[in-house]
Amino acid sequence: PRPFDVHAVRRDFPILQERVNGRPLVWFDNAATTQKPQAVIDRIAHFYAHENSNIHRAAHELAARATDAYEEARETVRRFIGAGSTEEIIFVRGTTEAINLVAKSWGAKHIGAGDEIIVSHLEHHANIVPWQQLAAEKGARIRVIPVDDDGQVLLDEFQKLLNDRTKLVSVTQVSNALGTVVPVQKIVEIAHRAGVRTLVDGAQSISHMKVDVRALDTDFFVFSGHKIFGPTGIGVVYGKREILEDTPPWQGGGNMIADVTFERTVFQPPPNKFEAGTGNIADAVGLGAALEYVERLGIEAIGQYEHALLDYATGRMRPIPGVRLIGTAADKASVLSFVLEGYTTEAVGKALNQEGIAVRTGHHCAQPILRRFGLETTVRPSLAFYNTCEEVDRMVAVVERLARARS
Ligand code: PMP
């Protein structure tokens, strides 16, 4: 792996120079959203300064530039996740819209009364609510893979849930609330052996580990651009080509049609069939720049560095009196959820913010998994490759001070 120079990397992110409450910003809220390197900011500015146009429809120079930039971004996404074809890459607003798209198009066609959809106890609300809505509409049912006390999914229990009514297994690859890495490769294999389709929610995994959708063999893979150093408002659905071809569109409108009369519409092939209306062209281009940036650093090098950083942070937090770590799986990425005896999570968040340290406190849009641990909220620092051991030390100092004040 390439050597990883965190101090050089930090200079690529202008926002890391911000001061908050007189202290240098520590951005430990990467699971909520990541910061943007100058390369992404510049690429979006360049698009609006030199290339801006709607795509596909107009035959003029800027339309050609915008179309090229948009389709190059699609190719970059394809390469980044190892898909076989750009026809398998659909641009959407983010993971939430991605899962809704799959539920409302593929799900509406293939899931009916009495059918079952399996999710895990770790899911973000975005991978629960759309399936619940579909289940209510169709008379289908949600089944839940339980987790152990470390927050790891129980594969044996998953096996037992599969039956001939199961139509889909939809699971996250990394838990946003606990950081658990889910063995999605095994889950996909087991599901496929039972003839069941799969969706993997990559919102939290995409920026931390190598994703290869062909090796994973999942039917759908979804993620958000803003969680991998790209802009908000752009995300991706990967779907296997033969599945997308056989899936009806979700929204209807311009861009997605081959021919329209008042009697009927002939749709474009994928991916256009699923991209009705003017898309988020500039931010798709920005996402392409973000993925190229990550490629330059190397996702393996990133993963190794972050792993060491998370180990360091865990080792420093665990011994603090009154700290309870939530999510103690053997395989984790980025997230270090905790509660501190004698303090609300809000109070801990405030104390950290006072020192310029940004963490999320709350339910992290994953209420079922927090309730599994008897909690409504946690404090959730989440790390990225531009974070450092010194930043961890600053956080630890605040938590230690709070812990001492209590006793
Ligand atoms: N799934 C997971 C695992 C997430 O962490 C998130 C974002 N917190 C989402 C889905 C939803 O992503 P978005 O808000 O970008 O649509």
TrEMBL record:
It catalyses: (sulfur carrier)-H + L-cysteine = (sulfur carrier)-SH + L-alanine. Residues 26-394 form the Aminotransferase class V domain. Its cofactor is pyridoxal 5'-phosphate. One of its GO terms (molecular function) is pyridoxal phosphate binding. Its EC number is 2.8.1.7. One of its GO terms (biological process) is cysteine metabolic process. Keywords: Pyridoxal phosphate, Transferase. Belongs to the class-V pyridoxal-phosphate-dependent aminotransferase family. Csd subfamily. Catalyzes the removal of elemental sulfur and selenium atoms from L-cysteine, L-cystine, L-selenocysteine, and L-selenocystine to produce L-alanine. This is Cysteine desulfurase. The gene is sufS.
